[in-house]
Amino acid sequence: MVLCDVSGARVRAARETMARKIGAVYKDMDLTMTTLPEDDVDFDPDAFRAAIAHMKRGDVVTIFTPDDTHFKICMACIEAGLHVLCAKPIVKRLEDHTALAEAAKRHGVLVAVEYHKRFDPIYVDARDRVRAQLGPFSYFSSTMTQPKAQLDTFAGWAGKSSDISYYLNSHHMDVHAWSVGRTSRPERVVAMAARGAAERRLRPSDNRAIEDTITLMVQWRNDDDSAGTATYTASWIAPRADSHTQQHFHIMGHEGEIRVNQAKRGYEMSTDTAGFAQLNPLYMKYTPSPSGHFAGQGGYGYRSIEEFVRAAEEVNSGRATIGDISARDVLATVDTTARTTAMLEAGRMSLDAGGAGVRILYPDDLRDENAAPEKEAKRLKNGKAVDCEAEPVGLRLE
User: Fold this and answer.
1) Which pTM was predicted?
2) What is the pLDDT of residue 369?
3) Phi, psi angles (nearest 5°) of residue 130
4) What is the DSSP string of 96-141?
5) C-alpha torsion sign, points 233, 236, 241, 242
6) Helix (H) or strand (E) segment spanning residue 143
7) What angle in degrees, to the nearest 10, is found between the helix axes of 70-79 and 94-107?
8) Which residues, in sequence order, are bridge partners of residue 97?
9) Rounded to whole angstroms, how far apart are CA atoms 137 and 226?
10) How far is Cα 102 from Cα 200, in angstroms, rounded to an integer?
11) Domain termination residue (choose one: 115, 150, 183)
């Protein structure tokens, strides 16, 4: 295993943290690894290239770095023939997402976004019920908030490398897009934001704007030409509560609705030292087994990574193709997730333009007029009024 950062001091701290929280807690855990850069290196933004040099084609890379560094690192790994699992959002711009998808196809590697909510058993069941029982999409609303203390962790990049919408709204955007599948597509985005609390807390020396809360309003269109609406809200100025992340969503179709509250699972604990808390071992079980071993393999935070590693092994052994993995619709593969990136970028564009609308463009928006009759005939033959299969190809500020 190779662990890489830009700072030698930080990789030293990571080794110490892993020794304390893993090695000293669980039995028989092998923490042998190479760490880069060397401990005495203050800053090396290209340390990831040295890490890549330690690997061979077909190895697996996980990328959990600030959002604006993802594209460069992902592309270097893809070109080295490595399978890549990247933290959300995989990139901030649709153009970069498309470039990664094309590069992954060209180099024959598996690339996916680490959307672990796809492995939450309740979210999986909700997705299946949405497709089987709710009918055409009509309405989706999600809220995801974290306490102000989280801002301290992200003080170096909040409002600079990314924003709260990229960080948290991306989760439920993916859940929504994954649930409706290729029966609906987002077409227009308008964003609004609240400001003040985050800037007062962090007092950035460069006076950059840091939104407290961002809401994206998105118009969707279904393949039968009916319309749906969605709102996605994310914030990092909430007070401390019984759960670190308050999160819930509501989805309504023409024939039913589903509500999910992921913060409250009906499992609560209170101690003299820690107080009251909502527990969620479905995500990750940190408490050791009675024998003292790690017992969190069933958690969806663990399974999200495990599933990717197993898929990469299948590709390496020839038991499955990249297309096979993508068609399973389990992993958030780079070739099927551009609409989430498009909504996120469109939201940022809207905010920067004072709340103006942003259109998400698809191939049929850009098609050559001479080819239009043939394409329309094909769609009508398939019984669909709107082509919701294709990924977005561009954005246009209104």
Assistant:
1) 0.94
2) 44
3) -55, -45
4) HHHHHHHHHHHHT--EEEE-GGGG-HHHHHHHHHHHHHS-SEEEEE
5) positive
6) strand 137-147
7) 10
8) none
9) 8
10) 42
11) 115
Give the domain extent around 92: 2-115
Distance CA 364, CA 373 (A): 11
* Domains identified in the chain, total number: 2
Domain of residue 69, CATH code: 3.40.50.720
What is the token pair recorded at 286? Answer: 């940190």
Q: Is residue 330 part of a domain?
A: no
Beta bridge partner(s), residue 387:
none
Final residue of a structural domain among 51, 85, 115: 115
Same-domain check for residues 171 and 125: yes
**332 CB burial (10 A radius; 0-12, 13-18, 19+):** buried
103 and 248 inside one domain: no
What average pLDDT does the structure give for the chain?
A: 94
Cβ pair 85, 308 in contact under 8 A: yes
The rounded distance, in Å, linking the Cα atoms of 345 and 365 is: 19
Q: What is the CATH number of the domain that holds 208?
A: 3.30.360.10
pLDDT of amino acid 274: 87
Give, to the nearest 10 degrees, the angle between helix 121-133 and helix 170-180: 40
Sheet harboring 83-87: ordered strands across? 60-63, 83-87, 111-114, 332-333
Question: Is the residue at 317 inside a domain?
Answer: no
Half-sphere exposure of 57 (CA within 13 A, CB side): 10
Structure tokens of 155?
């003080």
Q: Which secondary-structure segment (H or E) carries 193?
A: strand 184-195
> Are 71 and 162 within 8 A, CB to CB?
no
| Rounded Cα gap, residues 348 and 68, in angstroms | 14
Residues 173 and 277 in one domain: yes
141 CA to centre of own chain: 17
Kindly give, in sequence order, each residue whose CB lies less than 8 Å from that of residue 336, ignoring residues fewer than 6 positions away. 326, 329, 391
Tokens for 360?
Answer: 């998400």
User: Which regions of the chain are under pLDDT 50?
Assistant: 368-370, 377
